[in-house]
Amino acid sequence: MLQMFHADCDGPIISTYHAAMLNLLSVSSVMFECISFPHIRRDFLFKFLVIGSAGSGKSCLLHQFIENKFKQDSNHTIGVEFGSRVVNVGGKTVKLQIWDTAGQERFRSVTRSYYRGAAGALLVYDITSRETYNALTNWLTDARTLASPNIAIILCGNKKDLDADREVTFLEASRFAQENELMFLETSALTGENVEEAFLKCARTILGKIESGELDPERMGSGIQYGDASLRQLRQPRGSAAQTKQQCNC
Amino acid sequence: MERAMEHLNVQLNRLTRSLRRARTVELPEDSETAVYTLMPMVMADQHRSVSELLLNSKFDVNYAFGRVKRSLLHIAANCGSVECLVLLLKRGANPNYQDISGCTPLHLAARNGQKKCMGRLLEFNADVNICNNEGLTAIHWLAVNGRTELLHDLVQHVSNVDVEDAMGQTALHVACQNGHKTTVLCLLDSGADINRPNVSGATPLYFACSHGQRDTAQILLLRGAKYLPDKNGVTPLDLCVQGGYGETCEILIQHHSRLFQTLIQMTQNEDMKENMLRQVLEYVSQQGDSNYQRILTSLAEVATTNGHKLLSLSSNFEVQTKSFLRIIRIFCHVFCLGPSSPNNGNDMGYNGNKTPRNQVFKPLELLWHSLDEWLVLISTELDKECKDINVSSSGNDITSLLLKKQEADNSVLSETPPLLLDAEGVMKTPEGYTDGQDVVSMIANRLSAVIQAFYMCCSCQMPHGMTSPRFIEFLCKHDEVLKCFVTRNPKIIFNHFHFLVECPELMSRFMHIIKGQPFKDRCEWFYEHLLAGQPDSDMVHRPVNENDILLVHRDALFRSSCEVVSKSSNEKLKQGIAVRFHGEEGMGQGVVREWFDILSNEIINPDYALFTQSADGTTFQPNSNSSVNPDHLNYFRFAGQILGLALYHRQLVNIYFTRSFYKHILGIPVSYQDVSSIDPEYAKNLQWILDNDISDLGLELSFSVETDVFGTMEEVPLKPGGTAIQVTQHNKEEYVQLVTELKMTRAIQPQINAFLQGFHTFILPSLIQLFDEYELELLLSGMPEIDVMDWKRNTEYTSGYDMQEPVIQWFWEVVENLTQEERVLLLQFVTGSSRVPHGGFAFLMGGSGLQKFTIAAVPYTSNILPTSSTCINMLKLPEYPCKDVLRDRLLVALHCGSYGYTMA
């Protein structure tokens, strides 16, 4: 189409060139209307769970973490809710995909179906409620059997702001955490104290495990996915030969 | 004297030369005239003539003329007139003269690829770096057209190979965009900046991707081009996907493996066009087994996450459903294509028989597990609700939420009504879903969308047309919950339970609910499914292939149409019909309409003996004696095809069938009342048997009838051993049914079968079941126009009414104000048919011959509704006290009572 012979010397010579460029412009103008992906390099995606008895403040913790404010008049969660946030951990950009589960017993079978493939979990109890603390063993067993034995769990004693009504001491809980190889923090979804830290600590642990080779992000159900930015150099992937071939051009 | 002679000789000489050459031999003095004399010679490269003319003239070779102010040198360069070009240059033409748009002769020569001209211009010191008004240089022009050889020669003279046009585009940009591989290489070898952004930040790679120039992109990436978005954040990958350029995408992914995940994640982006994205993933998945596995596994993972998000009540239902189902659709599509090595689907494997290929569904199992648990949970809650009506609502279960729903929703359903009373429990609820959100209904929609996805994933692993046993098992397991969902919100069926249409066994479970939905909704659903299998159904106008046009002869319409339709493939006919009458120009929708119209009249043409007119004179049904035409079954199949095709393309036909024949199309059993359309007297007799006790009448009927078969009377049993079974008061209903079937169905069974065979090639039997026989008539033949004046003229009055009665005046006033649809209902209510006979109301037929529309008076009692006797076309209209009451009662009767008979 661009090879037209212009014998008519009065003809607009620019037309052929423009025809070619206009074509491109129309494509681009469509593109400009699209919301494209933000060009933040994302290294990993971790799947997180928030578990624990009803009323221990799981949804409020998540809300505080994502929105940076306290969730007023929170209801019981129906089933499982979803939230996500991109954080920076040790120089890596990690997207946390967080599943906030209902604590009520009747939802137990539904919430359990979300456990598989979680890389990390916040195990939450209410420091003002002995009952929620006593239930921890059950939650922990569930998480370790259903999610993955390698799951990184942080124990969160929530409602730290209500110290006056405390029924579980810090010492007692930290001993429990130690015995069960959990990280431990006391948090307050109301003031925001330690909330961010709890999520980040858990993410940091997972990242450490990946770097040390204890966790293999390539394995299905690890709860970890590579993000946009390739970090595959970090470890030699154990994928199939064909997959390796795919990746070596980068 | 001599001088005068000489002068004459010169003039004569000039004249002969001029005449011999058929042109002037002397350039006019006026430059404008001169230049137009020279121009055609330059264009034709007649350099001798030009040279001769220029020789003794004072013409300025740089004279600029015309609208764009070009010199003759421009013309020579543009047309490739090398000799003239050289001549002009020698005579002092300026090689760098710019026209009104800033173009030099070199630009024009470059644009048109005039190699020799370019060479000569360069010899005469033409400047290669001059930009025209838009910033374009000669190398831009060469790059646009991919004239590598010329570029190669020129580029050595270029001071800056990255010279930008007004848009900041370099020659490399335009070469990449147009995919000229060698040109790109040449420019790169000459030191062009491979990552140069234009004003909007677009790099050469970006340009290559925007036009899907795979090889060019490959070259750029191999030469180390960076992967950069433009200033709006649009990346090369975005562009490839937008354009559906699978090959280019694959190249990008090969070089930047991280883009693989980005590509997969794009399925979540609602701005990406699904068909383009699908096209790309389709291509990439076909590049080897591992790509196939990897794409599907990743898609399954993304789908699972999105499915779970959909089950989170806080997510936006519409957005999340759309996104989730889109991913599932793409996933299933890619899965069905199979890996690149052709496997004949033998490894598809049902449950249990796990093959590596089915492994890709594994990530989704998590979602199906959650779905299952949700449904179990809801079923438990519903059970609990039914059991402990009074205990309920410690506030810790869904019951309380259900209760709220029912309070708000007055249309309480049979499954759960007693709970309404338990308002106390609700008040106690400490949970405080005070916003009254209907949680179960919210989750019901979400779960239904996941069920839809589950069905899609199950069935894409099955051979076509089979329903997955796993899905059937699933449906049976959750039968009650699902029924509860759809009773609460029937829209769910239309929105998500598409599996019903593909699986008639499942459809029957929900049929009563579906049938209860408005006709309009069912129509939409019907067409949605009818067209669902069509590729690119969003493309309305597709060019018609000349070979696909149905060429028919007007004077032999039936036979020629039959011929062309049987020759075309059903798939093509589904995509669209184009008809042209032999010897006529016309084409398009109007012609198609006309074709259907004439053809449907031809189908019932008595000459073909295919259909016979029924007793009422307006409707038709297959002729039991059609076999006089030896090809009759082929023609019935053709008629079925035409009707199916018409319905498929929403064309109306000009045929009205008998009730019973519509029932045959729908697969509904006929009833004895349908007999009246072929034999009204006999129908009355059947009616009589049913209405009266026949025990002591001594009818001596057996389960058999005598029929005339080729001139001899034969006893045909209605059922095995029927001749020996007496008809009694006890079994008379069975007898009537069997004898009806014999008359209505068995007599024309081959014809019906052939017709349906044709019809079902376009319309699935399970789909058409959505409608009843009245609706089918509307779908096929449309709403008839009813002329109220004609109706009024041909109406009789009896039992005390006459034209002047106020009630009658009101009646006609009401009828005039009815909608066309309501008038049809009224007609159907009184006559049993929605049709006005050919010729108008004067030809309205009753049970025995012409029977005009009649209105009879009935004494008024409060709340009494009008009734009718369809066999004598009589409306029994109570003597209503005022017009408003009349209208009110009439409308109630029409909307509730027009279907279904209350035999009087």
Automatic annotation (TrEMBL), chain A:
A GO BP annotation: protein transport
Chief location bin: membrane
Location in or out of the cell: Cell membrane; Early endosome membrane
Cofactor(s) the record lists: Mg(2+)
CC terms in the record's Gene Ontology section: early endosome membrane; plasma membrane
InterPro entries: P-loop_NTPase, Rab4, Rab_GTPases_membrane_traffic, Small_GTP-bd, Small_GTPase
Keywords, in A-Z order: Endosome, GTP-binding, Hydrolase, Lipoprotein, Magnesium, Membrane, Metal-binding, Methylation, Nucleotide-binding, Prenylation, Protein transport, Transport
Molecular functions (GO terms): G protein activity; GTP binding; metal ion binding
Membrane topology: Lipid-anchor
Entries under SUPFAM superfamilies matching the protein: P-loop containing nucleoside triphosphate hydrolases (SSF52540)
Reactions catalysed: GTP + H2O = GDP + phosphate + H(+)
Family: Belongs to the small GTPase superfamily. Rab family.
Known function: The small GTPases Rab are key regulators of intracellular membrane trafficking, from the formation of transport vesicles to their fusion with membranes. Rabs cycle between an inactive GDP-bound form and an active GTP-bound form that is able to recruit to membranes different sets of downstream effectors directly responsible for vesicle formation, movement, tethering and fusion.
Protein name per the record: Ras-related protein Rab-4
TrEMBL record, chain B:
One Pfam family here: HECT
Subcellular localization, as worded in the UniProt entry: Cytoplasm; Endoplasmic reticulum; Golgi apparatus, Golgi stack membrane
Annotated keywords: ANK repeat, Cell cycle, Cytoplasm, Endoplasmic reticulum, Golgi apparatus, Membrane, Repeat, Transferase, Ubl conjugation pathway
Gene3D superfamilies in UniProt: Ankyrin repeat-containing domain, Hect, E3 ligase catalytic domain, Hect, E3 ligase catalytic domains
NAD listed as a keyword: no
Membrane-spanning intervals of the chain: none
Intervals holding ANK repeats: 68-100, 101-133, 134-166, 167-199, 200-225
Catalysed reactions listed for this entry: S-ubiquitinyl-[E2 ubiquitin-conjugating enzyme]-L-cysteine + [acceptor protein]-L-lysine = [E2 ubiquitin-conjugating enzyme]-L-cysteine + N(6)-ubiquitinyl-[acceptor protein]-L-lysine
EC identifiers of the protein: 2.3.2.26
InterPro entries, sorted: Ankyrin_rpt (IPR002110), Ankyrin_rpt-contain_sf (IPR036770), E3_ubiq-protein_ligase (IPR050409), HECT_dom (IPR000569), Hect_E3_ubiquitin_ligase (IPR035983)
Active-site annotation: 871
Enzyme class: transferase
GO terms, molecular function: ubiquitin protein ligase activity
An annotated GO cellular component: endoplasmic reticulum
Pathway(s) this gene product operates in, as recorded in its UniProt entry: Protein modification; protein ubiquitination
Annotated ranges, domain HECT: 569-904
Biological process annotations from GO: Golgi organization; membrane fusion; protein polyubiquitination; ubiquitin-dependent protein catabolic process
Record-given protein name: E3 ubiquitin-protein ligase HACE1
Species per Swiss-Prot/TrEMBL record: Triplophysa tibetana
